[in-house]
């Protein structure tokens, strides 16, 4: 299962850009022992890359009581991050320093959803 965006995914993200800020929804399922690795990734993201590209974590939390979901649809964690525009997110992902750190995220996860959102009017 893919957990990282690929080049074609980033091209589609930019091609679909309606302009303005983008909020990225991250739904995460951790590998055994992956939470600690993800925490180190998150620390480096917060200290280095989000300030560099104008990003801001709006919410990060652990999944809890599932009210409506089929078996296997619950998530270990949810992270919501705002970027000033889609290009900022794309530039961050392409940053060679970020690419060195993102291995921590890749190792930490068995499954992920990474979805751009568009604010309602």
Automatic annotation (TrEMBL):
InterPro entries: Dimeric_a/b-barrel, DUF1330. Residues 36-111 form the DUF1330 domain. Gene3D superfamilies: 3.30.70.100. It comes from Saccharothrix ecbatanensis. Pfam families: DUF1330. This is Uncharacterized protein (DUF1330 family).
